[in-house]
Each structure stands twice: as C-alpha cells, then as structure tokens.
Amino acid sequence: MANEGAYVALGLKVWKSQIDRADKLFRSLSSDDVLREIAPGKNRLLYLWGHLTAIHDAMLPLLGIGERLHPEFDVAFVSNPDKSQANIPSHEETRQAWNVVNAELLKGFEKMSLPDWVQRHAAVSEEDFAKDASRNRFSILLSRTNHLSYHLGQAVLGLK
Q1: What is the rounded CA–CA span in Å between residue 9 and residue 58?
Q2: How many C-beta atoms surround the C-beta of residue 153 within 10 A?
Q3: pLDDT single digits (tens) 77-104
Q4: Would the N or C end of the chain have less CB density within 10 A of its end CB?
Q5: What Cα–Cα distance (Å) separates residue 91 from each residue in 96, 97, 115, 138, 153?
Q6: Partners of 120 in the beta sheet?
Q7: Do the beta carbons of residue 25 and residue 152 sit within 8 Å?
Q8: CA pair distance 46, 85, nearest whole angstrom
Q9: How far apart are CA 5 and CA 149, in angstroms?
Q10: What is the pTM of this model?
Q11: Where in 2-151 does DSSP place strands (E)?
C-alpha cells in the first residue's frame, strides 16, 4: 500500500496548492473586483468564487466528512446562471463561507486514512461501486482539484 499512500499524499498536496492559489487570488479582490466579468457577458469573479465554495461544500457529505454548511449557495452559484438571481451572497459572505468550508474539508482530509480514501463516495451505490471501484473518495478529490484549477484559470483571465 506504499504506492497508494504516496498517491493520496500527492493528491492532497496538489489540492492544498490549488486552494492556496485560490486563497491568494480571492483574498486580493475588492468588492468592486469581484463584480468583474471573466469576459464580456460571462460569469463574474464572485460567481466563480461562490460556485467553487458550493461545490467544495457539497464534498463534505460526499466524502463522509459532515453535513453541508452552505447549501443555500447552490441556488445562487450552481443551479442558476450568474446574474439570474437578485439576492446572492455578498463578497464578505462568500469569503467567510469559502474559508469555513475549505477549513472543514482540510480537517476532514487530515482524519482520513488510506482505506477511507478508497471507499465509495456517497453518490455511488454499493452495486455500482462493486462494478467500478475507481468511483471512490480519492476520485472526488482529483476531480474537484481539476475543477478548481479550471476555474482558477478563468479567474486569472478576469483579472487581466
């Protein structure tokens, strides 16, 4: 299991690195900056930040870490396009939620053992997991790290 442990350690290192990059970027934004569009007519930086927060929040139950902390973010940042909702979380509410959600994830990650990472995640049935064991918690970490990286690239474009 030495190789598997190294893979998980690497996956967590990349996750933390991307979270640090996102923290640095989002921390630097003013309340005016977050209202900038990535490109004309496209998502605003606030929408991307809230979207990432909502997706990370959904990881808590998916990985068996805990209940969602901000399910209300889904309406504003996941199930509806940007600018379609009049009442969305503010810059400061998004900042606080981002910090709390990612801190909870990190605490949960630190408690997980190697066998925990290779268990099925909550969105896959036992039957489907028996057919495809790659549908595990570690695959969620990898896919969500990729998702974060993708949106960080968009956010960087929005700052240019």
Answers
A1: 22
A2: 11
A3: 999 999 999 899 999 999 999 999 999 9
A4: C
A5: 9, 10, 38, 31, 20
A6: 136
A7: yes
A8: 13
A9: 23
A10: 0.95
A11: none
